[in-house]
Amino acid sequence: MRASLIQIAVDEAEPVAVRRQRVASLVRDQAGADLVVLPELWTTGAFAYEDFGREAEPLEGPTYEAMAKAASDAGVWLHAGSIPERAVSDSDGSDDDSSGSGTSGGGAPAGEGTLYNTSLVFSPSGELAASYRKIHRFGFDKGEAVLMGAGRDLVTVRLPETTLGLATCYDLRFPELFRGLVDAGAETLVVPAGWPERRRSHWTLLAQARAVENQAFVLACGTAGTHTGVPQAGHSIVVDPWGEVLAQAGSGEQVLTVDFDPGKVAKTREQFPALKDRVL
Fold first, then answer.
1. Which of 99, 132, 169, 218 has the smallest number of CB atoms closer than 10 Å to its CB?
2. Number of structural domains, the chain?
3. 274: nearest Cα among 216, 206, 189
4. Which entry of 55, 144, 169, 187 is annotated as an active-site residue?
């Protein structure tokens, strides 16, 4: 299986509409890959808090449309990273809860108008295969933690070769989420992020830890550039079920492409059946 992680540089001087079309072109360039992964909040930047509300869009907004077409044009499964989603109401007045999540988790109140950090996954035909609202919001009572609602549902996506488990950035610090994804059948854990450079060592360490403890592949795609004065770590990474780093990007914009064998997950779990010894 071939995966391409597109480590996008977020330049504050580049209009969102221009970046959206540029990224769509980068996705089309990956025709021949099986899976393409984009970073977290690449339309705005993960630390551009003041832009969340201004650039928020409904689930089926301009980013959805551009990425659906790009996935179809390239014929790839596309994890389109995440967007600032503004929830809308359906015809009966309830929250349109496409990901199955609708709780604020202590931040912004859930319901119409609530913002979510929402990931989108498209099939090679351009159909929306899944959406995931980020469960753990970063900020310690400021920033994303108060500006966005929290998702509540674990999300997996079945591809022909493997089952993806979806998580986003700060989620990487919470191992119980990944255990839940593995229990739901996940074999490849996909983590788009906007991880800061000052904690880059944690990024690599946690990606390897999640791979080893869950005996799964980890595909973690970050951003490059600087978001409102916060330098980004970049260094997107692919880790195998034994914790071996198969490929890692540098700090700038880059497409990281790696071939891996999804069958290695079952083999690893059979050869070293640690998951069977779980007690808690």
1. 99
2. 1
3. 216
4. 169
Give the helix ranges, DSSP H, for the chain: 16-28, 49-55, 62-74, 144-147, 175-183, 200-214, 263-271
Query: CA 135 to CA 156: how far, in whole Å?
Result: 14
Q: Which token pair is 24?
A: 């769509």
What does residue 28 show for φ and ψ, rounded to 5 degrees? -60, -30
CATH number at residue 178: 3.60.110.10
Active site residue 57: no
Question: Can you give the residue range of the structural domain that contains 239?
Answer: 2-90+97-277
Across the beta sheet with 77-86, the strand order is: 128-133, 115-122, 77-86, 35-37, 2-7, 254-259
- pTM of the full predicted structure? 0.93
Active site residue 134: yes
| Residues 118/82, Cβ–Cβ less than 8 Å | yes
Out of 55, 85, 134, 187, which one is annotated catalytic? 134
3-state secondary structure of 35: strand
142 is catalytic: no
Contact in structure between 261 and 16 (CB atoms under 8 Å): no
137 in Cβ contact with 105 (< 8 Å): yes
Spatial separation of the C-alpha atoms in residues 146 and 148, rounded to whole Å: 6
Q: Report, as an integer, the average pLDDT of 206-223.
A: 98
Helices (runs of H) and strands (runs of E) counted in the chain: 7, 15
